Automatic annotation (TrEMBL):
It comes from Fervidicola ferrireducens. The keyword Nucleotide-binding applies. One of its GO terms (molecular function) is hydrolase activity. InterPro entries: CT_A_B (IPR003778), Cyclophilin-like_dom_sf (IPR029000), PxpC (IPR052708). The gene is kipA. Keywords: ATP-binding, Hydrolase, Nucleotide-binding. This is KipI antagonist. The lineage of its organism: Bacteria, Bacillati, Bacillota, Clostridia, Thermosediminibacterales.
Length: 335
């Protein structure tokens, strides 16, 4: 049976997993969750496989009617989460009963949140991934964002035994100015030292012409020594192109797989979640690091995931009635 009915779809809500790999040579982007850290933790909170499909919520969340007893977890951007008008915390898993209404509002900090369900969302698996690539109409739910009256199903009907909250030490804070670490290249030799210094010592603003495909930036223009065009080569999420107008473009999860503009630098993989939580009007500064430093950061990120698993706080939910009135009670660390 269906798990949710979509009463309101939110601004842009899609089903994502960790991405579609191995088809870039055929022009198919990786897609996948923009903030892989928050996505993975949402599934961890429910005991799912970390790649289980979940909803990616952008800026404004959906309202869902609950059609069966389930458990969910919400992570990522700070935004109001309510069950029948009663508040729930982000970075926490909690139960839902048939007939409940789950409402997720607009972000107060960050840009993207993730709603995971126990057992994962059922989705169209294309080329080994459930991720929605809306430009190509692949994966997700018919390759598109959610719309009103959609029915959402679970892949597995598993039952959670406990509910958890992430220790505050590991919950990210999202600011409207972020330092993003990059590795210079692969075409940094197209730019002289002054322009590379300008790139690394400037603050750029994300323009409104930005989405899952890429962020266009506004700020000091970067000029190539001779030309900005290159023989078309591969693009990975995080690549920073410099087109002829000198305004950097950061390519993201839904970006095309090849491009013909020189790439001055590439954002390190571990900072893509930070990028995912920025929205138009937010600002970016770049910091160059070495490949060895980037590899260490990846290791540190994986350690933090393991620390989150080891320090989860147990949360208990009770619906009690006193003198005919219903109360929603949440208690932590009661075994």
């Amino acid at each position: 049976m269906a798990t949710f009915r979509v009463l309101q779809p939110g601004l842009l809500t899609t089903i994502q997993d960790l991405g579609r790999y191995g088809y870039e040579s055929q022009g198919v982007p990786t897609s996948g969750a923009m903030d892989e850290f928050a996505f993975r933790v949402a599934n961890i909170l429910l005991g799912n496989e970390e790649n289980a499909p979940a909803l990616e919520i952008t800026v404004l969340g959906p309202t869902l009617e609950v059609l069966e007893d389930v458990a969910v977890a919400v992570t990522g951007a700070q935004l109001p989460v309510e069950v029948n008008g009663k508040k729930r915390m982000v970075w926490t898993s909690f139960p839902l009963k048939k007939g409940d209404v789950l409402s997720i509002g607009a972000v107060s900090s960050g840009c993207r949140a993730y709603l995971a369900v126990n057992g994962g969302f059922k989705a169209d698996v294309v080329m080994g991934s459930a991720s929605a690539y809306t430009r190509g109409k692949l994966g997700g739910l018919e390759g598109r964002p959610l719309k009103k009256e959609d029915l959402l199903f679970r892949e597995l009907e598993k039952k959670p035994t406990k509910f958890y909250r992430v220790d505050e030490r590991y919950v990210p804070t999202y600011e409207n100015v972020a330092e993003i670490r990059v590795i210079l290249g692969p075409q940094d030799d197209y730019f002289d030292e002054d322009n590379i210094k300008l790139f690394l010592n400037s603050t750029y603003t994300i323009t409104k012409d930005s989405d899952r495909m890429g962020y266009r930036l506004e700020g000091p223009q970067i000029r190539a020594k001779e030309k900005h065009d290159i023989i078309t080569d591969g693009i990975v999420p995080g690549a920073i192109q410099i087109p002829a107008n000198g305004n950097p473009i950061i390519m993201l999860k839904d970006a095309q797989t090849t491009g013909g503009y020189a790439k001055i630098a590439t954002c390190i993989w571990s900072d893509l979640p930070k990028l995912a939580q920025l929205k138009p009007g937010d600002r970016i500064r770049f910091k160059a690091i070495s490949v060895e430093e980037a590899q260490k950061v990846v290791g540190d990120l994986e350690k933090s995931i393991e620390q989150i698993k080891a320090t989860l706080k147990i949360v208990n939910y009770f619906d009690i009635t006193v003198n005919g009135k219903h109360y929603d009670v949440v208690l932590e660390n009661i075994n």
